[in-house]
Each structure stands twice: as C-alpha cells, then as structure tokens.
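Onboarding guide, step 5: your first structure request.
Type a short instruction followed by the sequence, for example:

Predict the 3D structure of this protein.
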Amino acid sequence: MTNKVVFIDTEVSVKEKKVCDIGAIKDGNMILHCNSIAKFYHFIADAKFICGHNIIHHDLKYLPFAEEKKLKTKAIDTLYLSPLLFPKRPYHSLLKDDKLQTEELNNPVNDCKKAQHLFYDEVTAFLLLPWKMKQIFACLLYKLEEFSAFFEYMKFKPYFSNVIGLIHKEFEGKICANVDLKPLILDSPRELAYALSLICVQDNYSITPPWLLHQFPKIEVIMKVLRNTPCVNGCQYCNNTLNIHTELKRIFGYDTFRTYNGEPLQEQAVKAAVEGKSLLAVFPTGGGKSITFQLPALMAGKAIRGLTVVISPLQSLMKDQVDNLNRIGITEAVTINGLLDPIERANAIERVKNGTAMLLYISPEQLRSKTIEKLLLSRNIARFVIDEAHCFSAWGQDFRVDYLYIGDFICELQAKKLDKNPIPVSCFTATAKQKVISDICDYFKVKLGVYLEIYASLATRENLQYKVVYKETEEEKYNELRNLIAEKNCPTIVYVARTKRTEELAEKLTKDGFFAKAFHGKMDANDKILNQEEFIQNKVKIMVATSAFGMGVDKKDVKLVIHYDISDSLENYVQEAGRAGRDPSMQAECYVLYNDSDLDKHFFLLNQTKLSMGEIQQVWKAIKDLTRFRDKVCCSPLEIARQAGWDDSVRDIETRVKTAVMALENAGYVKRGKNVPHIYATSILAKNMEEAGLRIQKSTLFSEEQRMKAKRIIKSLISRRSIATARNDDAESRIDYLADTLGMTKEEVITCVNLMRQEGLLADTQDMSAYMLVHDTENKSLFFLERFAKLEYFLLTQLTEDGFHRNLKEMNEIAHTNKISFSNVKNLRILLYYFSIKNYVKKTEDGTNWLPTMDIPKLLEKHQDRIELCKFILKSLYSKVVREINSEQKLIPVQFSVVGLLQEWKETPRIDVNHTATISLKDVEDALLYLSKIGALKLEGGFLVLYNGMEINRLIADNRIKYKVDDYRFLDEFYKQKIRQIHIVGEYANLMVQDYEKALQFVQDYFQMDFKRFITKYFKGERVKDIDRTITPEKYHQLFGELSKKQLQIVNDAESKYIVVAAGPGSGKTRVLVHKLASLLLLEDIKHEQLLMLTFSRAAATEFKKRLIALIGTAAQFVEIKTFHSYCFDLLGRIGNLDDAKDVVKTAVEMIERGEVEQGKITKRVLVIDEAQDMSESDFQLVRALMKVNEDIRVIAVGDDDQNIYEFRHSDSKYLRNLIEEYGAVKYEMTENYRSKKMIVEIGNRFASTITKRMKSSKIEAVQAESGMVKITHHVGMQMIEAVVNEIKCTYKTGTACILTNTNEEALQVVGFLQKEGIRANLIQSLGKEFKLYNMAEIRYFLKKIKNELKTPMISEEIWERAKNKLFTTYADSTCLEICKNLIKDFEELYPQKYYTDLEEFAKESFYEDFYEKDNKETIFVSTIHKSKGREFDSVYMMLNGSLTLTDEERRKIYVGITRAKENLYIHCNTNVFSEKLFPEIVHIIDEKIYEEPKEICLQLTLKDVFLDFFKEKEKERLVSILHSGTPLLISSNSLYVRTREGEKTVVVFSKAFYDRVIQLRRKGYEPYSAIVRFVVGWKGKGEERETAVLLPDMWFRKI
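The system replies with structure tokens like these:
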C-alpha cells in the first residue's frame, strides 16, 4: 500500500452521539458525500492514511473503527500540526483558532478540501525546516498519536540520541543554557515541542493559539522555565535577554535604577519580578513605581509572549499610563475601560487576542466580564499587577470592596487554565502602614497560597519642604494662596476637596491674573486630557485639582503643591504632596492652608459617602424581593437601587449597589456571578457567507450602514460555526462579545441581529420571558397600559417646541385638574425617562427642561401607533399565559419571541392596513421597552438589558435572616480607620504649626510603628475616644458639651428603634431635637436623604432648619424637614397649599399602601416627629405606613401630652402613647424647665396635676433658682381689658410681653385698647380660613416679578435680586413690607438653591404671624392661647373669662398659657380655677371694680365682611391694586373710600353681615372713626378662573 491519503470530515450530532453526514476526498478529485458508514469504509479501504482537521479526538470518536482494528489506516490530524509548523503571525490563512476558515456551514466535503490544502502546506513547511529542528520535533513527537502518522507519511525517523544536547545547541542564546531539559522531555514532550516552535519565531507578537493553551496549559510553564527564569550561574541568554540593566536601557533609555537614600529598592523589586516572585512594593509618589512593573512586563512579553494584567481603580490613570508609554514609543500597552469608544475598545481587545499587547490595564470590576475572562484565558498570563494595593485593607486609606474579588478571579483563572503553579502577583502602593502591609500579605496567602516579598522604602523625600499655615477664614486662605503663587512663580498644583471648588477657584485665580485650569474626576474626558496636557507642556502653570490629578503624571518641574483643603489622611497627603519635586535634584515646597473646619468637611463627606449597615440591609431586602420566586436573578445595579428605594440623590448609586452586593457576598448571603449578557441566536439559516451576504444586500429591512454591519456580524458567526457544540463555548455568539470585537455598540449589534432574524438568516427562538399582571381572569397589564396612555397623551399636549414650561409638580396639578387621577410625579418621570432613552426629548444642559427632538405631531403619531401595538402585544401575551387553578401569583410568566410578535401582528387583519407596512421589529422592541418601563410587564433578557446586568445567586432562602452587625465588621473597621485618619492628619497640621521636627517624626511613626503604639504615644487619655468620632473634639463639645444629662442620654441613644420623649414646657425640646438631628447626620451613619422630620407648622420646620444650619453648617440645608401636609403633597407630586390640605395626609397614606408613591420618597431610615401629641388618626396612619415600608426605620417622637390643645381638629395624644404601648418605644421624660422662673413652674405643676391620663410621672423641675413674679387678680365683673392694660402700664418695663386671650374677638378688643393708650401692639391671631399669606398683593407681586423672567425652574441670583429691589421700591410705604422681608430672609437662609416651586410652596404653607420679629421688645404681642403655643415671652398677661368647671382640654389650654411665661406671669380671671385655697403662696388681688366695655374697638375685616362682587369691576380692581397696606381710608355708612384727583372713589363695600354688625355697634354707642388698608389680597370665587384683587381694611370704633 502506497502513502495514499483520504481526507475526511464528518458532521456529528453530539446530542445523539452519532455521525449524521460524511465527506471524503481521495486521488485529487474523487469525492464521497453521504451518511452511510459502510460506503465510507469502502471509500477509504485502499488508503494508508486518513487526514482531517481535529479528527483524532473528535470525528474518530464517533466512528466504529476508532481503534483502527477494521482498517489499516492511520490518522493524520492537521489541527496539532498547524501550531507546530505555522507558529508565526499571520499563521495559516485557512486557520482561525482551532477551526478551519470557512464561509459555508454543514458541508463536510468543503472542509475536506480545506484540510487537504492545509495538509500539503504543512508537508511543505516541514520540508523547509532546518534538519536539526526536524530531528528535535521527531525525537519529541514521533511516538505520540497526534504526530506518529505524520512522521510515517514523511518517512522521517529520529536517530539523534542526544536530543538534550541538540536542543541546547540549536537554541543557544534563545533559552537558558542551564535549564534541565530531561524532565520536560520525559513529562511534556508535546508542550516542549510547541514552546520551541514558538521560540524559533523572531516575531515577538506571535503567540500560542488559545485552543492550544487550553488543551496543553503546561506550554505556559515550559516557556517560563526556558526563557523567563534567570539561572543562578548565568548564561548567554539570561545575561542578555533577562538582564534588567540592559533591558532598562534598551526599553526606557535609563542607565540606572532609582534609589531611595541609597537603597536599590526599585532594582531589587524588578529583579524579584523577573525571577517570577510575588512581591509588595511600597514606594513613595514619584518613586518610579510604574517602571518597576512595566519593565518586567515588557521583558516577559518578549521572552514568553506573556501578558501582564495591571489592575487599577482609576480609569484616567490607566489611560495616562498607556499614553505615557506610547509617547516614548512603547506601543505594547492597552487599556479596556469605560472611557474608550467602541472602536478603541474593539481594537484593544483584538490587540490582546493577537499578541501585540503585553500590558493590559483594567479595573477590578471588569474581572466580572466574560469577555475579559475569555481574553485572559487565551493568553499566557505572565503576572498580575495590583496598583493602589492598600485598597485590600480596611486599614488602608481607600479600601475598595471590589478589590476583594481579585484573588477569587485569579484562583478561578488558574483552575480553568489547569495551572497548578500560581500566577505571580505584584502589589504596589505609595504609602502603607504596617497593618496594611500585613493585610495585603495575608490576603494573597489565604486566597492564592502566595507569599509576597516586601520592598518598602523607609526614606522620606529629602527635596521636599513641608509647611502648614493656619488661616481663620476663607478670605485669608485665598489671599495667602495668591501670595504664594505670586512669590514662587513656578508650576503649581493646588489641591481642594470638592470637584465644584476646583472650577470656582481656578476661575477666581484667572480673574485675578493667575491663569489656572481645573481638573477633577467628573470632568469631560476630553477636557481632562486637554487641561492635563496644557499643564504638562507649561502652557498653564497652575492646576487646581482634586486628588484625582497627578497619578501617573510625569511632570518633574512642579516646585509648589498647595493644599487649599487638607487631605483626608496622611497617606493621601504624602502622595499628593509628593507630586512636587519629582526631579530629586530640585527643591520643592508643600504648603497646607489649614483651618479646623477643613476636618469637619471631610467628616461630613465621609458620612455622606459611607455605605452604612442600614443601606446594605436595604440592598439585601431588595435582592430578597427580586428573588421572591427564584434563587437567581440577573439585573442591573440601578434596578436593585430602585427596588431598595434609593433615588437620584444617592451619590455614585451604581457603585454603592455593587459594593453592597460584594459585602453581602463576603458575608455568604449571595454569590455574584459574571456579568451575563443575553444570547440572541442559536442557529444560522444560510449555507454560506455568499448566500447570507446576498440576502442581506437584497433585503429592504436594512439601511446601508446596517447592511455593512450585519455582514460583519454574520461572517463572524459563520466562521465560528461549531464552537458552542465542540467546547460548550458561546464566545462570539454573545452580543457584548460581538460588540467588543467588531467595534460596534451593543445596541447596533442587537438591531442587526434582530433584523437578520426577521429576514430569516438567524433562527427565531423563544428568547424572551415576561411576567404579566394577571388577577383571576382579568388582564391587569392592559388596564395599567390604558391609564399610562391617557397620562402620556396629556404630557405630550403640554410639550412645545421650547420644551415644558412647567415642572413636574405643576404638570401633575394640571393633570389632576384635567381629571387624570392616575397622575403623580413618579409616573410622569417614568414617561419622561422613556422619552429620553428613545431620544424623543433631550434634557437641556442645566437639566431643568426637556426639549423635543422631532415635531410634536410626529410624537403624537408615534404615541398612537405604539399604544395600539402595546395593546396588541398584551392581548397576545395574555392569550399565552398558563394559569394554574387557584394560583395566587399576580405576576404570571409567559415565553415569547420578539420576531414572532411582529409576524403575528402582520398576520392579524385590521381595518387600517397601513399599520402592517409601517410596524417594524424596532417598533415591537420599543413597545416592549415601554411596557416594561411603565410596569405593565416585567421582562427578562434580550435587548432590554440596556447595560450589563449582574448575575446574583441568593444563598440564604429564609426571608427572616437579616444582614447583621458581625457581617458588617470588616467595613465598619474600614470606616473607623477613615475617621481616625482624618483626626490624625489634623493632628499633623497642628504639630506642623508648632514644631516642624516633631511633625516629621509624627509622620514617620505613623507609617512605621504598630498602630496601637502610635495611638498610645500621640493620643493620650480622653483623646483616644475623640479620634473614634466623626467630628472634631471642638465640634463635639459644641454639639454636646452643654446638654444636660437627660438631654445627652436622648441624643446618645443610637440603639433604641423607637423613642418617645415626653418633654415638659421649657425643657429644651427644640434644642434636643436639633442636636439629635446633628448626631444622626454626623455620628450615626444617617445620610440626609435617609432622614425625615415632620412638624405641624411651616414656622416650626423653618425654626428647626435654621437652628440646624447654625449648628452644623450648610449641610443641614439638604435635610428634609417638612410639615405633615407638605410632605404628603410632595408624595402626591403636588405643590403644597393650605386650601387643599384637608384630606392630603389620608390620600398620601392610601397611595403608599397601593404602591403608587415613588419608592425613593418614602424610603427612610429615621423619622423624627415634633409636637407628636398633636397627631391625628391620619397623621398616625402616615407614620404607620412609613414604618411598614421601612422595616428597620427608627422613629423618634417628641411631644407633651399636657399641651395637646387641638382636639377640635382631631389631634389626640393617644397616638403618642401608642408608640409605647404597641411598638415598645423607649420613653424618656424631660422635666427640667430652663425657660421659666421657679414660681411659674410651680403654678404650672399644680395646675397640670389636675389633668387626667398624663404621660409624665415626674413633675417639672425649675432649673432657675429665682422665684419670678406670679400674680393672680380675681375679678367680679366680665370686663377685664382695662385692668389688664393698666397692669401692663404699671409693670411692663422691658423684654418681650404678650397678652393671652381666649377668643379672637377679645384679642381684637385688647389691640384697640392698647392703641388708644398709645402702646404698640402686634396681633397673633387667625385671620380667617380665607386669608392666606400667599394671596397678599406684596407676595404675589414678588412671585410675579420672578416668574415673568424665569426660563428655568431655578431662580438665578440676578432675577432674585431684581425682584427684591422691585418689591422693596414699589411697596416701600406698605406696613406689610417688613413681613415680606422676613419671609424672603428666611427663604434665603433655608434654600441656597432657589427653585420657584419651593418659594411658592413656602409662601403657601406659611402664616402671616410666622414672620413677626420674635424678640421685638418695643411691642406688646396679643394672642389667643392657641396661637401662642410654641412661643415664649418674658412677661405673660392672661385674661380668662371662663366657666366654673373645666374639661381636660380647657385645663391643657390654660397650662399652655401659664408655661409661655419666662419671668413674670399675671393672671386676670373671674373663675375659681385659681383660688387662693389652691395657690396660697401666690399673690392674690381681689378687683371688685366693674369695668366698662372698651371705649375703642378695632375690627379687622375678612373676606366675609366685604361685598366681593364689588371688586370684580375692572375699574375697581385697578384702583384697589394701587393701594398699599397702611393707606388711610375714609368712612361712609356702608363703605370705605379714598379721595383721588377724579374725586371720591369707593374701594370697599361692606357685606350685609358686617353692615348689620356695624349697626349693632352703633346701637351700643360705637361709631367708626378711622380705617386703613390692612391687606390687598387675591381672591377667586368658586368655579371662577379669573382672580380678583380684594381690599381688606382695619376699622376703629369709638364709644361716644
């Protein structure tokens, strides 16, 4: 038998494990194509050899003669010969990885032809090999089944006895001369042959094919042994190729390595890396860290074609390092990160795949990508380099949870490579304490069994001079900054703490003549690159930056670094300061402009960025909710955040979710898998590329651009035809992988794949699942759609070419006016989100408006078509739902195909035939996306994965299991260290001001001493406690140093879930609450968005906010402190106002219970309630609802049941007691009275003791020792006003004073009497339900001036100031102007960013009396007792006309009146309530005089007192609108008038009821004698659209 060869190929059904098609070729042109084994046997009977590609371990396994017993044929496999004979790029044209390049599927004859062509090329290649190489290959491979037949065919036998000597001689200077080849030849001859074949290639970028590495992982090991392990004795190869000094010169041009005070650490670390050791290098900033890993990486790339993977937390740093290498001509480094565009990303991936990349920079998060994992499996990994390695340690200054996955990934990668030898690891950090070094070493020892050699520099930078300059104010800081810049006149980096400040400071310096640029992590990537380049090239000398700037920036002439804000740790400070003087021969200076408040900013930022245990619990609950029906879920971080109730105010929301998931993973609650994309196609319905290309070309579905992309995609898929079958590897059929490798966006790939499916090129499978809202036999999803469709149509009608002229709250108001009850802000925002991702609208740059991207009619047409299609889809899916009998599930799963839906739509008859022609696959996708976003469907997989989802496996099934304190220990330790680091850097600054040498020693000790010893040395006694708090000692004393023992106990209680504080009058309730809020924010891990405080008046909310701002600064402005009504209006998405407040709380509760409120609005960790005794049933139901949706919420309710005086509006202190009785709240009693003198407290106690069902068990104790004045005057008559006023005239000297009455009418009479006596008086009373501060002409004028200029929801300072000036000028003579000024002042203080809706709501919720000057000591206040609650006065005069018997409510009201007094209390009464028998020690006066009725009466007219229709005449309205508060009026019988140039003009006509009252007063002898304009207000009649200006006067009557 001659050397006859038959070329064969089979198509195998792996599922059925049998051959289903056979092809064979022999004698040049004889072809067999059949599925008969017998015919196949006959065809090859006369052949000595059969040959094919991958036949030995694949095709022959499924043929009966696999052991070659039936036929005397021997198998030659071109697969294993190819990498041996074609090791050099571009390899053989017929090969792609382990497959033959083909453009035709399922045709074994075609593959036979390819194999035949390849085989004869391999024969030629072998014949062209040098004789010694033939001998080496033959000696190593002759007896192996993959090669023996080939050598027999070539008639080549090995006869060289000393193969070891032959290899050493042939590879002299190419491998280590001292390597022991014998064990390699005996154990791994195949791997050795492949390694030697690759070594022969002169091209450094030729690599071992991925399939070969996968099948024979020892090739990597052998390459390292032969070429990357320096020998001890030295040899030609090792002395040259592995010589770190010559390679340093060759690659980087440096003659020597850098030393640190004579220590050759850089050289030692490089040497260790080249020797294959794992190491930890601690080098100072500018210490040559990059070269320390780049040099070994590039050497390994050349020697073993190895890839070094650099893991870094900063994307910008990765790009900088790659760019810096490119600048010096080193192009072997790439980065794959989010800053790259698709083309760049595809190019980087391709370069890693093809071997032209030797350094790959990635972030820890990218290790979760299957694309990255596959990429690394395809290469010989020389080493992992972990930059910023302190991130592993909770004791490091920048611990990152995602770093903890690195060890797991490397371990998994090694296992998949079947490599028992650990991949070396190099860790780098610029600054690290001993504990951090220990943590890093322990981590790799436990995870990988790797021991790190440590190379740490103890030397300090001798060329840096450190200085700290203490500056008291911001102005002093800035002046010093300018002086330093002007004096030094050199390249300067100015470091600040906040991103916003970089731009503000750079702009300010530039205006002052110091040209500066800004740099921070959130800048546009192009701006960052431009600014950095200008600084490096000295086009700009000053860079104002956050700590993100400088890493990897090699600028040697920076001579000045100024920390405008001190760093948050010594580690960061040393790193940032070390960016000066990177040229060791140059002296540089490092300044800190220090202020104690700098530390407070760092503490606040830490509190706001800290991932608290409560937040992790929220994420755990969200995952439990998402996995309610299954153990595994694939979802995005944003979906988890939304499920957890986090809204857009949460900083770095996706990063925080991933960190929380990692924390849960480390604690064993979940297991996070790789980022899982969806696979769209499982089969290709075209025979070859030619057919596929022709069908794409002819199709009308594709645009020209899509055609080109579709052809590239289908070509890639066809060329990988059997990958999934052969190795269960779906590589290039994944959408993300295709997008990455072909340089397209994921959306572009998805669109093309779906179009190819629609064209029939790709299989249509059941590729999506949906969960429908189904209840019994009702399609709830359809009902949901119809409500949203109505709302969307309304929203589109509000859209103009200029966008929306109203914000969401205003649009929601209009929607409700239009009877769209389903509307709320949450649903409006959902629709706008959909519009934006579909590019129907786009946000303006300031983020305050949405502009349409197409004509409004076109949008309405799209809306109509989409809704019709959505209805069809829901009906179609509903028909496919399989419902189980008695199933309680509301979400029912249904499987469907997107293409199938389109086909079904086309085949369904409809009246409008045009729709069939216009609806495309993209429209179906859009409709499904819409249904998903509005919540009508829950979709999984497919094109709706808009960003990579995370695969999360839930490991703990029990829903009752919570994330615990012990689980949080690791993160907690990290945050404690961050707190200590801030204190320590502050201590350094203070030391530096006092003693330079001591400060330097402090730094040295910090990095070198055991941490406990360091703390003991520098923080003695009580200071040890100080450094564990998230505030400075000074701030701690300010917050808590002056609180009483009981107050401090309440503020410090961070453990009790529910707290009730029964706070007596004057006990410092407001102070305790403000300090508790401060404690929550600064010490208890509560972020401002997680905290809600509810009050019962806008005045109280304002007062709390003001005090909190004064206590902790501007951070308090973001805390949500609202009235119950305001908060509920916010939940409803409406602007708060007092008119509609009646049922708003009840409505909000119902919406919460139905799940209609935005989750972020009600997700809270702490609820604080002020005046909790005033809660009504609706108010308490709101509290219950919030407790129900937030299972771990803390509730702190403060109130005094003795002061519950609003029973008439359904308030009841039983709800405060319910918190104790039902929920087990801890009760505190605050009984120390700081307000009142001793005698006033005593009479209050006596009176309170007569009230039943009291919560407090202890009596109130006066803190003040002075007795004060209490006097009770007993009257025998009913009239007491004259007596009270006489008392004031005799006793009032100075201070604040108030007369308290029972009724509004009495209060008005008192005001009239005081004014008659020439005593200034201010009335604190209700002005009637119809009067609203918001309706005052002055307020309306101010709002109108703003609104007329407003183009965005935010009010600019220019508009604000112009409106103020107009108001102050126009209404200069108005007696209400002072009230307006106080309102504006309060708003400015509370709202640094002024939004029109906030201003409008503030005005609508406020009362006129809220803006009186509280400490006005020249005016007597007059008030009803009800209105006086919450106020205090130095002297109180109570006037009690009462019954002989008192109810508890009346007793509580009198108790409130008594406890308003601070120093003096004068009671005038005509009852026995204050009899001398009950209060014997108090001065009692019997006044038997019968006083007459007051001679003067003041009446303040309300809307009920004037004839409203009179004002509707345009002439009257014009006249009224120019009158101001305080304008005198003239009186006629039934009206008031003014004199004008045109004569007398009536401006008020009395209502019949008021005119009758005037008649009655006249009968009593009272005549009106004076009148003025009190208010001009806006009024709108019921059902009327137009508003009318109405004048409300004050009138005085005198008894004649």
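Each response can be followed by summary notes, for example: Residues 907 and 916 are 9 Å apart (CA to CA).
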